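pasting for ref. prot 1 ->
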Amino acid sequence: MNTTRPRPARSARRAKVLALLTGLVAASLVLSGCLYAMIPDASPRPTTSKSPDTAGVAADLLPFYEQTLDWTPCNEAFDCTTVTAPLDWSDPGRGEIELSVIRSRAEGTAEPTGSLLVNPGGPGVSGVALIRDSVSFAVSDPVRQQYDVIGFDPRGVGESTAVTCYDDADMDAYLFDIPRNPRGTDAWTDELLSRHSAFAEACEANSDGILPYITTENAARDMDLLRAVLGDEQLNYLGYSYGTFLGATYAKLYPEKVGRLVLDGAIDPSVSGLDVGITQGIGFESALRAYMADCLADDGCPFRGTVDEAMADLGALLAGVDRDPIPNSDGRLLGADSLMTAIVAALYARETWDYLTTALADVLQGKPEIAFQLVDFYDNREDGVYVDNSTEAFRAYNCMDYPVDATDEEQADAQALLEAEAPTIAPYWEGPDPCEVWPYPATGVREPITADGAAPIVVVGTTNDPATPYEWSVALADQLSSGVLVTRVGEGHTGYNKGNPCVDAAVETYLLEGTPPADGLRCE
């Protein structure tokens, strides 16, 4: 259901950056890429590693599992290294890739509990950047005191062996050029498919043969390699959004190696790509209505009347910029797709709703600058430069993980449901699936994950999470044989380390003491 914008299935998009927007509205400041000051380590310890855990490893994989890590200081507060992994886990002799890893060493003890791997989601978001730029956003201080916190870029992502497609100019054209043909026509569909084909061809040409191996299953096997070379017998892991699917896949493959796993903002591994797009569209409509109710209670809101009336006015605004896009100072045009991306970006966190109000008020006055700031944070674009490959990696993972197998009837039924449940969003949530023209067929299978034999796995769900709707967390916790559900009642994407003491205590008690919360814990 995607257009040229890759937004509907993109999960944890730069929440750490969006958090920076809070409080900037009144001053209308130009936002910078500087996120958090680096925290110096006042008492650095030697950067040696424990011996790799090679128990039960097949002979052809031993060279990978036996490698010794060479940690070097980076950004003053952290240690960095690279890990060599097989390109193809089913044929280790086919080639190798490199995985970029960063470590924030435990601050409160000379003998940490172990390593805690963290994945921020996406797929395609850099775990190295998350820890380097904002480790305190990733995990709380008590967890940092006890664990070596490990960020890593999964295969295909960031500083690891990466998917590469377009340069900055071509990416701008792909994401921002307004289609020549009217929305919804056959010619419009053909035009978008042609763009998707050109993008896929560039990815194949520029990614050095790695595309068929950019899958969540391979990334989960890479995580077991990381666990082993870090010297841990079991995997302790905190995964946000898409990172929950990565963690659940690990538990499916290695249930006996599961340590303390926390999966926050879950993806249901059994749902199809079509269902993901529709469910997220409905989720963002729900979040948008909650935003609008909050906006209408403020005199500064650019909308008036009831929530239904305000949503209708917003729909008219979207239709207006769809017909007549607004030029930005850098030459880009703000059409309905870009404005929808700006709206979606701000709905990830309750704290950024005021910023969305300012952006929409400006667009009503013909000024798109703040809306484009939201879009650029979503796309990790700064001063015309894409600072990572998250868009390319996002596409590569999703096209390999989600089979394109919906029938015409299923697509029509899904679109009818979206139009009924998300009437404001629906017109701008449709379009040809770019994975139809990906160079390789999907190898992923959408099915429930039970992970029989795994230790307790804590699943955190937020009741009005727009990106990973609450029902997915409920479903994953139910599927997992050892699943434990924690519910955060509230708005925004993910629940841990967001200021809810109940959720934080439940997660930290498990990570620090090994005691899982009661299944069904509800945190108001």
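and prot 2 ->
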Amino acid sequence: MRFRFLAILVTLLVAAAPLSVRAASNDKEVTELLTGTLTDEASIAANPDAALETLAFAKQACEGASCSPKVRAKVYIAIGTVLAIGKKKPGEAKEAFVLALKEDPTATLFPNLQGADVQKAFDEARKVGNASTGTAQVPKADGGAGTPKVRKEYPGNVKPARGWKTGEGYFYYQEAVSAEGSRDWADCAAYAQASLTAENRVTTRYLAASCEERAGLWIEAYGDYNIVADTGQATGLGNVARQARAKAEELSQKIPKIIIRKPAKATGLVVKLNNVVIENEKLGGEIWVNPGQRTVFAKGRVDGVDGEFEQVVDVAEFESVSVDIKLLPPGARLKDATVLKCMAEAKTPDEFARCVGSGGNKGNLNYTVGFELSGYHDSNFTDVVTPALVGKVESVTGGWGANASFLVDVVTTASADIIANASPRWTEVRYVPAIGGHKKIGDIDVSIGGGASIEPDYVSAGGSIGASIDLRQKTVTPALNYGFGYDISGRAGTSYSVFGRPITRHSVDASITFVVDKATFFTPSLTAVFENGDSSKPYRYIPMFSEDLAQQIQGLPGLTPEAVNTYRLGIRPLEQLPLSRQRYALAARIAHRFSSSTIRAEERVYADSWGLIASTTDARFIFDATKDLRAWPHLRLHVQDGVDFWKIAYIAEQTSKGLVVPFYRTGDRELGPMVGLTLGAGARLAFGKEKNWGLSATFDFVYTRFLDHLYILQRFGYFGATNLAVELD
């Protein structure tokens, strides 16, 4: 009688309160009412009608949005429990449990009221499916799709083993254990549930939960783990109960969630998840689902116009996917389907943005045109000016793209070592055209590219082909690329038929991109390059010294050209490098996006067959200064040792046949030991009506310390670039 009075009081208070105040405000009172009503099986069995009358008031107090879905689910669990225990109506109890699971797929029974009749009705309700989640069909162990079904029927004559009450329960338990041993997780879960229907045992339910988890039925596993956690202690299986509680907590974090947001002005809105209607009050909140693919469909009216929406989404562990319903006329919805597919497949915010374009879906193709001008100057009197044009077309819905670029290098130099080798200041122009494209075929993206570099005394041409594949819902993307290059090194003003050295180059690049979480990408890569041919410079003459002078010069890097000419011998042999070179680089890049900034870091370790070993560390911190302005500082550190045949002073030995010089010799300071430090900054401004114009500027200060070079001790370099690009639909 006391609980009936409390229920009536709660109902009257709820009715008198304004709706805005009542929203989800009755959870505490209703929960206390349920706890006071469902004390034990004996009191429920003695007076089930009184309990049901009290629960009717609780249900009325949760009408509309007055209670949260979890508390409404508890009310239905309570009603089903009373129907199973007190009224002996398993069918009606099952229906109440189905409604509970529809409100909250993770709902469980009351810990103190989990008798055989209650448990059986609850398990039957779970077989109907967690309707409110729109749970997709899960793959069976044999590769097919569908809800797991028991394949063997109980023969009816199995003798139960010791400790078992029924032969049927024991038979299906043995089948579940056998399916677990053969890793048929779906069958294991189905057999275990069949065993539970015949005989409710904690150990069987733990087996069911374990197999459900590995079959991808995480919501079902979460429910069973919670039941074991609630009942295991009372049956003397405290350790199993603790393990189940830990498993349930782990799954609660891993279970994917879908958030469906409705349009602001929609009327008559009906939303379905895998053909199951989602209640209006659940829109905007998290809906727990098993991992996999499902379809969100909606229809309604906006400003009096009928509209529809459909989107297929994939959700994986730990993911929380938001779907914004955008009602379009049926014809427009079909036209927009390719864009929605593109959005669903996008792996990064930039890819998602390209799907919808700057101002919505204006076309199937996106065009990017850009112009860049960069310049370089250093303390060794080297200057470079590089204008470049780039263009790109991308069909984000068709899965293909093409790009082309053309740049010109204008280089002039009068470096100290150039002058010392009797070469005057020179200026030359280099032309670099390039073209490429890619095509996505299912989860595989195939790319191809080619380019050339043309100088007065050097011509290079090459091509590449590669492929990448998306795995594990695009969270793992391995890629493999092969490149081939053919170069001819010559002399300016001389025909290549008279003087031309061919150089061939094969390269292999393998990488794997991991989407660690929604904001973090990690990409390790391995590159191998195999070169064959004489890459020695035909203009580079190497100073030679007698043995005693060479020993003195070893400790005197950074000499003037005049001093070197004073000490050197009269012979001037040309540079000679090995005729083959194998290069290997191991790199790793990680990028993490915060709310309004991104940090990106890369480490590269290099070694080659000439004995050169190097390490390069590069980092950028990119932050959003404003909505349209992005800026970043830049830091780079490079350290390397010299090649095996590197000498600050090469010795020419006097023999009976004259002077003999080292077979391998070089004056290329880039092959010697050095340390380089780069400090810089950059910014990008998005502007225009649709923010499809971008203006970027970067500046880097580069300091290089040559640790063992004949002429040059250090170099100060200054690099700047500006880029203007526009994206068109």
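Residues 69-85 form the longest helix (17 residues).
The two ends are 72 Å apart (CA to CA).
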